[in-house]
Amino acid sequence: MKAFILTYHSHNISGNEYATNDHVALAADLALLHSLHLEVLPLGEIVERCRAGDASRGPYVGITFDDGPLFDFADFDHPRFGPQRGFLNILRDFRAGHGPSALPGLHATSFVIASPGARKAMETSRDCGYTFLRDWLAEDWWREAAASGLMDIGNHSWDHVHHAFDGVVIADPRRDDFTAVDNFDDAEKEIRAASEYIAQRLGRAPRFFAYPFGHASDYLVKEYLPRHGPALGLQAAFGTDGAVRDGFDAWAIPRVVCGHHWRSPGDLAKLLAG
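and the corresponding structure tokens:
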């Protein structure tokens, strides 16, 4: 059995072509998935089918968004590349244009960063590319998105161990490397604290965790999440290193990333067929 969890970043905009704009890519990919008659499902259903070892159908396809920019939810105007349709509205456009029978399981999970301080630091960092726009990592859209029927909110850690934030909570001095989270205290600060913060905003705990940068320490995969994840409401965790195959680990489910694993509709079609 095989499944593909497709991952997009709504802040990946360096043009208005497929290879330079994840908004363009997402819209094209929905049409491709429909034309290929593939089954798109929420993450929870894919996890359950994988656990059951259901080899009779598939491949299954899931959709995820990382980092939690407002662009996952809302349209905005880019000063260089013009109007951009928000990811949630792209899902709605597909549903409106094709009807409920097309990709009936259509659904995405947006993995968001919890720490307000980390998000504010990223908003104002030149490295992140959006200093022209205020509050582009705000949280006030999370609840509405989760109530839309087309999107859920997942846990993408407390602060992403991001170099732009001076207040990163782990003891290790490394930045932009989530494998540094390799002990109980740091895992509690990065994962438990984030789940609790997001739960306060949503009214329920997030069900899924995505490792920042796709980096997962053995401690998180083999010890912390199997032992403590279910008590936090977490059902699975996701990396970024390929397709889901038989014998998968629920705390290290791979994903494929737009712009890295594929850069065109043809690339994606070959990936899904392979």
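(Above: one complete record from the training split.) The radius of gyration is 18 Å.
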